[in-house]
Amino acid sequence: MHRRLVVVAAVLAVILTIVSFTSIGSTPPAGAQGQFDWKRYAGKQIRFLVNSHDWTNEIIRPATAEFEQLTGIKVAWEIFPEDQFRQKLAVELVSGSGSVDGFMSLTSWDGLRFMKAGWYEPLQKYLDNASLTNPQFAFDDFFPNTRQIATLNNTLIGVPLYPEVQLLYYRKDLLQAKGIAVPQTMDELEAAAKKLTDKANNFYGYVTRGKRSAAVYTLAPYIFNFGGQWLDKDNQPQLTSPAAVKGLDLYGRMLREYGPPGAVNVHVYEVYDLVSQGRVALATESSLGVSTFEDPKKSKVVGQVGYARVPRGPAGSHTPIISWAISIAAQSKNKEAAWYFIQWATSKEMVARQAKLKIPLARKSVWDSATFQAALPKDWLSSFQGALADGYPNQANPLVVAVPETRDAIGAAIVAAIEGQDVKAAAEKAQKTVAEIIKKTQ
Amino acid sequence: MVALMAFPLAYTAYLSLHEWYASSVVGPAFVGLKNYLALLTEDERFWPALVRTLEFTIGSVILSVGFGFGIAHLLIRRFPGRGLARTIFLLPMIATPVAMALVWMTMMSPTIGVLNYFLRSLGLPASAWVASPRTVIASLLLVETWMWTPMITLILLAGLSSLPAEPFESALVDGASGWQVVWHVTLPLMRSTIVVAALFRTIDALKIFDIVYVMTEGGPGFASETLNLYVFQTSFKYLHLGYASALIVIFFSIVLGASLLLLCVRRSAV
What we know:
The structure holds two protein chains of two kinds.
Chain A: H1 2-25, E1 45-51, H2 54-71, E2 74-80, H3 82-95, E3 102-106, H4 107-117, H5 124-128, H6 144-149, E4 151-152, E5 155-156, E6 159-160, E7 166-171, H7 172-177, H8 186-196, E8 204-207, H9 215-225, H10 242-258, H11 268-276, E9 280-286, H12 290-293, E10 305-309, E11 320-321, E12 324-328, H13 335-345, H14 348-356, H15 364-367, H16 370-375, H17 378-390, E13 392-393, H18 403-418, H19 423-441
Parallel strand pairs in A: 1-2, 1-3, 8-9, 11-13
Antiparallel strand pairs in A: 3-12, 4-5, 6-12, 7-9, 7-10
Helix pairs in contact in A: 9-10, 10-18, 18-19
Chain B: H1 2-15, E1 18-19, E2 29-30, H2 34-42, H3 46-75, H4 82-94, H5 97-107, H6 114-121, H7 136-161, H8 166-173, H9 178-206, H10 210-215, H11 227-237, H12 241-269
Helix pairs in contact in B: 1-12, 3-7, 3-9, 4-7, 7-9, 9-12, 11-12
């Protein structure tokens, strides 16, 4: 009798489980899945410090009420512009008051410093805990290289938000008019830039960043494509390697000969301006430029811009892949509630909202969705995919503890190269300074 | 009051003897005078920044006091529309430096800036303005002078209008020319006012930050990095607070020294 009851109960349990799993298969409203206990931390209060971006402003901020309704957790979502954000976050985390439960960080910039300071809560144990992580969250859905961005010293420290690679932007109409093919190699890039430059008419063949610290990011593919790296296995800078010197030399020449006057003051905003005002033919920049170039309110060249991979060198085409990530603060007293918020904010449903706003995203399922595929130009999508697969996670600069001073030192060499000074000497000076910085801070 | 003023200074001096990053888990470690030694002997950015700051300050004081005196001299005369002219001359001083720096930055843009448009239409070669290490300091001086000459004008105007009339009358009776009056009467009478104006300007110019930060962030390269900017980078960007404190102590001594020097000049002037 008893045995029979047990069997019946077991069968019932199996049926129930199957039913509940199949019901997950249908599409429920955001976060309203049946099995996962979203209310477990109801009544908790959490506070996030975040960087101002379309994602923080347009997607998450208006939706926090939905999260509060779903979980009963109160959220303070505090947004600051990037510079103030870093200062505010550092001050609060240094004080160790535990008032911050979660924060954003740009791992290529802040990662190792935050890691060394012990500000990140390792995430893997939350992901592995079925009672804390909704099975639907599916971390595997994130592109492998973007998961790498959020992995520092083999520790997962956050969830990647909106990845970024570098692309070549070119004016389809101008290249066609001059019978120039889209540059596939660094040599072709220089040849094309030369042909397209018309200084008498204030028109320039090529532009990328020239401003000290900012330019380190766009220099990276020039070094990688010639076979160079920022650091060797022992964390020593490689700025005087033949590849690095060659890349630096070409970078300086490209901006000096075919770039706009005053290239040493050009930051990403100026690059976007010059392209969208129709003053340059070619540019290598962050993949985010697409939203400016395709916006009729900001761009005179809508529909005329083509998207391609950064031209390859002898070692291929490799750009840095970077992304902001969202993390739990190690000093938080409400870590589980903070994790609830993070998995909700980066769930498939929320990432799908990114697709509608044309914000690049890290989840494969949403990337493949019809909405996202229709939102962006085909050549942008395919170039981004290629660059993402071949890119180097977090290599926007040498991945060290002291990024700002390291970038300033390399940036000084870039400015010297653009100004036409001795590239080798500039590289040696940067090498020496960066080695000292690493020695002092690592 | 004393504690309020003394504590930050004392704490900075204390920190300057320590090696400490704001983001490090360990607290400040005592290193004696190591930060100062490194600054004075190894640092490749400190000396150029110091020289640049002094050049910039001297240039700025000479230009703004010179122009300020000239303009005050014009504005003290009675002429139709004097009130309006005075108001217009004072406008740059009222505007927010950051906003004005942004406006100047746009005007100085090498590609789309209006200044190069003027130069070209006058048949002159275009300038890179703040986008070249060779012209950046001069361009910043131009903006700084434009922004601060009105304040000097205001101080000197007040000084001029309080001068007694007799010396001028006797000079005229003695048949002195306009230049002679300015040189032998106005300037000696105005000496202490000018020193006060120059003192204000010197202290402000030494501490220049806003327009440089907005327009160049110390670039291109480090070609316009002044001491104050270097302090900012070291403390707020690099979070290297021990080292930054040593910089601040040196910087503070320079400002204090310059002020004391000028105060002595003023004493001897009175």
